[in-house]
Amino acid sequence: MDKRKVVIVGASHGGHESAIELLDKYDDVDVTVYEAADFISFMSCGMQLYLEDKVTHRDDVRNFKAEDIERRGGHIYANHLVTDIDPDKHTVTVKDLETDTSKDVHYDKLILSSGVKPQTLPVPGNDLGNIYLMRGRDWAIQLKDAANDPAIKNVAIIGAGYIGTEASEVFAKAGKHVTLMDMIDHPLETYLNQKFTHILEPIFEEHMDLKMGAKILGFEGDKTVTKVKTDNGDVDADLVVIAAGVKPATAWLKDVIDLDERGFIKTDAYLRTNHEDIMAIGDAIKPLSIPANQKMPIALATTARREAQYIVNNIFDKKPAYPFKGVVGASALSFFDYKFATAGLNEFSAKKLGIDHAESYYEDSMRPAYVPSTNNPEVYVSLTFNQLTHQILGGAVLSKYDITTQGNVLALAISHKMTLEDLAEQDFFFQPGFDRQWSLLNLAAQHALGRARF
Questions:
Q1: Within 10 A of 247 (CB to CB), how many other CB atoms are there?
Q2: What is the DSSP secondary structure assignment for residue 174, as one 8-state letter?
Q3: Catalytic residues
């Protein structure tokens, strides 16, 4: 019997997970992955570690190697760009970027994991040299060279989200004069509640200049950039790193696949597109957010992999037995001495989605008061919750001590729609070398409920 042919577009987290799961789960599938880039497959979320010389080797910063798929019987092709889809014929047009030739390839099922691409700034001078993006292996190599180049003294980072924050730390540690700028009022404010950004902002100011609430008007220079022009004054720059967000890499799909007004691929409850044999996963779709109870962008590797696993488990069903359950959206980051983790919604996202919510902020020491401060760090927790039902919608933890695994506990609580009461009374271990009689998240939930401080 002929094998069922599955074509996967994109070798990122979702593409990798889809291929591995298909080849492990089914004996009668022919799996082919097409990747437009020339490298399989650089992990951009490991870029900061690479730039700070904290990895084994540059080419180890990847999700997988082609042979990981091939030894399972799959096929994977770098430098192959899928340019078109014919849903009636069940074919994709694939262009070999090395030979500049194209061919049509048949599929029974098609998985789109086309991802996103970095936003550029449509302003004068954006074609000058030394204006970099912080995504992908080629940019990582150039950024590494720039960090080690003594001729580059002034670095401007545009975008104060996760990627911009990582870039600002890398270049500050490399001894550059860094200016971090954004249209928002405080660094990381789309990810963290204000109490947390107020803790972190002095750390930013200690290591770099901040230019918040600034609109970028253009770049100046002769061949290479020398200045960033903003509506709040100019900034000298020998190098500019643009980390101003991403957009779905879906323009090539617009005549075939239904897209929303921002270019995200529309999917049903089973992650199928408007063509039932074409599914979509990853950063280019809006998955169901469990705490928001609506679809929203959640551009995370963890999200893409869960979507891929769901797709593979149901790919050959006429109608899957159950819809994709959704995701929470959890992430973590370190910034100099501080480490934080977030899960679900926060002030910014809840307001943007029009979701009724309340916020609670709790700070304490990690261990009992009799443990000296040298081994008893300050810890901070924020909780976002429904005012009426007390369902936990989101949360974050922050400390100089690594308590980021508490973010996973919050993610579990949010995923299972636990209430403040549930978390306040949840049974966690106690040992004074690690925590308190009531654990940190117990105390944070009790505080949100207005109970007496323990």
A1: 16
A2: T
A3: 13, 45
Burial 248-275 (b: 16+ CB within 10 A, else e): bbbeebeeebebeeeebbebeebbbbee
The half-sphere exposure of 209 on its side-chain side, counting CA atoms within 13 A, is 15
Range of the domain at 424: 331-448
Beta bridge partners of 289: 294, 327
CATH number reported for the structural domain that contains residue 62 in this entry: 3.50.50.60
Question: What pLDDT, on a 0 to 100 scale, did the predictor assign at position 1?
Answer: 61
Phi-psi map region of 288: left, alpha, beta (phi>0 left; psi -120 to 50 alpha):
beta
**Per-residue DSSP letters for 85-133?**
EETTTTEEEEEETTTTEEEEEE-SEEEE---EEEPP--STTTTSBTEEE
**How far, in Å, CA of 392 to CA of 242, rounded?**
34
Q: What is the pLDDT of residues 33-92, one digit of tens each?
A: 999 999 888 888 888 988 888 999 888 888 888 899 999 999 999 999 999 999 999 999
Strand partners, 359: 384
Number of structural domains (the chain) is: 3
Strands 4-9 and 29-34: parallel
Q: What is the pTM of this model?
A: 0.94
pLDDT, tens only, 227-245: 999 999 999 999 999 999 8
